[in-house]
Every structure is written in C-alpha cells, then in structure tokens.
Amino acid sequence: MHVSANPTPPATKKRGTRRRLLASAALIAPLALSACGGAQPGGATAGGFSAWTLTGSQQDAFEASFEQWNEANPDQGISAEFFANDAYKEKIRTAVGAGNAPTLIFNWSGGTLADYVANGNVVDLTGKVDALEDRAIESIEQAGEVDGAQYAVPNNSTQPVVLYINEKLFDEVGVEPPTTWEETLDAVEAFKAEGIIPFAVAGQSQWPYLMWIQYLTDRIGGPEVFQAIANNEPDAWSHPAVAEALTRIQELVDAGGFGDSYGSVVADANADAALVHTDKAAMLLQGSWVYAGFKADAPEWYEEGNLGFAPFPTVDGGAGDPANIVGNPANFWAVSADASEEEQQAAFDYLNEYTLNEESIDKFIELGLVPSTDDAGEAIAASEDAEFLDYAYGMVQDAPNFQLSWDQALAPDQAQELLTNLSQIFQGTVTPEQFVDNMNATIK
Asked: Signal sequence: where (predicted)?
C-alpha cells in the first residue's frame, strides 16, 4: 500500500510513519575503470576526455555509463577516476584552481558552482545539452543554473535525507519511531537505558552534522531562514530559529542521543550505517544513498526486514512545513573551461546521449537509488525496492521545499567555517550564541 511520503499521523498511528523493507539483496561489486593511453591534464587520454566522481553506492551506475560510451566511442574514451567524498572535495578544489580539472567536474551545484562560474572555470551549457535537460526533473535541473544560465546538469539520483529506523531494536525496546521532538527525547532515554546508541552519526566527517541543523532550522523557522543566509543578508544567522536549532542539538547530545564515540565515526566507510545494521544504534539520519549500502553491506539483516524509514520529527510551534526536505536534489556534471574544444564537444555528446538515459535509470533503480528524471515512476513500481524508492521519489515530488546541503549552497570559505563551528556545537565547545556570531562574520 502506498502512503504519502510525508505523513503526519495522529499519536495513535505512529507506527504508520515507518515502512518495513524486505527484498532480496543486490550486492554492489564495484568494477575498475582504468585509464589507458597518454595522460593529459585532468586525467584525459589522447583522443578522449576525463571524469572524476565518487566511490560508493552510485559508482556502479557511473561505471556502466562510462563503459557504454567507451564501447561506442573507442577513439574518444572516458578516463574515469573515483574518490572518497572528503578526499574528492579537496582534490577537485585544487585541480580546478590550478587549471588541471577533469573534463567532467562532479559537483553539488550551489556556492561551489557559483564560484567556478565567477572564476571562469566551467562552460556555459545553455543550448548544448538540451536532450539531457528534457529527461531531468525541471526543479532539479534548475539547481545547476547560475544567473539564468545552465552551468551544470544532474547526473545521478535525487537524494533526500531520510530517518532510517532499526525495526528490530524498536520492537525489542518497545518504542515507536518519534514523530515529534518530545518523542525523540523519550526514545533517546529508552534506548540509552538499554545500552543502545539512539542515533548514529559520522562526526569525524563533519558534514553529516549538517542534516541535523538543516532539518531543525527548517522545522522551526521554515526555509526562509536559510534563504536569507544564502543571500548573504546582514546578520542572517541571527534568526532565532538558528539558535533554537543549535540549542536542541546540544540538548540531544547532552541526553546521550549520539552515544560517546560519534566524533570518531567516518561516513566514507559507511561506519554510521554499520552501527545500525549491527544493532548498536537505533536510528540514522542520512541521505537516500545509504539505502543501497544497507542492502550491500548487511544483506541478511536487511532481508529479515529490519530496515525502516520515517520523516524527520516535527517541532512544536514550528513554522516549517513537515513535508519540507533537505539533502541533495542530485549531483551534477559541469564541463571544464580548461578542456580542449574536442574534449568539450565529446563531453556534450556524452551528456546528451548517455547521462540519465534509459540504461542509467534502470541501473540506478537496480542499486536502490532514485533517478532524478521525470519518467522513473513506472520503472520504480516494477522494482524489488519499490517501497523505499516510491517513498523517496514521493518525498521529492511532494516537498514544498527541497533545501540543498548547506556546505554546498554556501561559498567554499563560508562552508568550511560552518562545518568547523557546527562540529564545535556537537562537541560543546561553543555556545549557540558564539556560533551565530562566528557565522555572521562570514557574510560578505
């Protein structure tokens, strides 16, 4: 039975906010794409072009797409390199700044893309990739625009942040998934009493902390709060919703909501999800991409129906719509302005013919990922993962507002200050007031 992606049930129907997930596991076995021929700047081979992207749950889909292109275009082959998330962000920043970027630059749009555009690092794609734009969800595609021109296009799944539930632990402890902040604190107390970490979070990676401040700020103050920040309005961080969100985060930390060792957990290694599927943690606030990792890393646990999911809880008196979501509308390809005209044209052809094409859609769905295309509904319905994929696809379609991850929406220097200060909030070494002052100082 299909249920709305963002239910707000009465207290007597709390169990309805989660889903049991039971399907056969499909193990993800990454393939190796090796470069051949003489290396050029950015990793391109003679006669071809280059692409850098991420390891993880989406890698198989990218590899399949690259291989499809290479088979049809042996004289213009794609040389692909894959990096862990955190390592990639540092490497691509250096490469772009040095004029040594790959032809296809994987990015999150937002502030980083705007920075690339301002510095002339990427090509205006307007009118060059119309075939791809016809396939993509328009609202997602628009995230790749800067000043009305298309500088990046979606290349993979749409990625709302979901609250994952360990159904086994909830049943054992006799707790219902929380729908309000008060119920969240009650659940924390119940799990802590049983020696179970209430929420896994990959603190060493820092960026997973963003999911907490984003959802809480939106639930409390609505999307206008961060929009003012993104617009660099003076003292925008001083909105009361920001300080209240930070206060609630520290309240959760002090209550033992994340356990004692969350600062050493790394997201790139899926260590946060591992705490859930090894029954050490009850919940995880993470992106939709983590679903595929659960299937691959814990097939027996998954097949037993132990994985559920739910919306982020509401905050009493909050102004934000409970259907609002946060995350990444998608990831994007931009084309390097430092690539040769031949490389750029080959990249345009690849984007038009192979990015988010029918084969890619099928591959994303096979991996338990939600394609960022308009016509994925029928394929999702036929998938063994239809329950989760339909839920996540519905979250995106039904959301009044889909807020981009703050570290990507802001300029890179502001984003780094945000991650540093937010980490200190979780560590308890700065107060919400100090955080607000520190971040207001970054507004230009």
From this structure: 1-34
DSSP 8-state symbol, 14: G
Among 288, 257, 58, CA closest to 164:
288
Residue 47 — pLDDT band, cuts 50, 70, 90?
A: low
Which residue, 248, 178, 216, 219, is CA-closest to 426? 248
Neighbouring CB atoms inside 10 A of 179's CB total: 23
Torsion on CA atoms 280, 282, 287, 289, rounded to nearest 10: 60
- Domains 41-157+330-375 and 159-326+403-440 fall in the same CATH topology: yes
Do residues 150 and 126 make contact, with C-beta atoms less than 8 angstroms apart?
yes
Distance CA 104, CA 78 (A): 10
Backbone φ and ψ of 300, nearest 5°: -70, -45
Instruction: State which amino acid sits at residue 295.
Output: K
Distances (CA, A) of 419 to 288, 329, 394: 21, 20, 30
Q: Check if the beta carbon of residue 426 is closer than 8 Å to that of residue 209.
A: yes
CATH of domain 41-157+330-375: 3.40.190.10
CA max distance for the chain: 65
What angle is formed at CA 291 by the lines to CA 184 and CA 170, rounded to 5 degrees?
Answer: 35
pLDDT tens for each residue of 351-405: 999 999 999 999 999 989 999 998 888 899 999 999 999 999 999 888 999 999 9
Q: Which residues pair with 162 in a beta bridge?
A: 286
Name the E strands within 295-443: 307-310, 325-328, 332-335, 402-404
For 147-189, the pLDDT digits (tens) are 999 999 999 999 999 999 999 999 999 999 999 999 999 999 9
- The ranges assigned to domains in the chain are 41-157+330-375, 159-326+403-440
CA distance 172 to 183: 17
Rg (CA), the chain: 21
CA angle 243-395-162, nearest 5°? Answer: 55
Q: Give the global pTM.
A: 0.81
In the CATH scheme, what is the code of domain 159-326+403-440?
Answer: 3.40.190.10
pLDDT at position 45: 53
Cα separation, 162 vs 388, whole angstroms? 10
Helix, strand or coil for residue 35?
Answer: coil
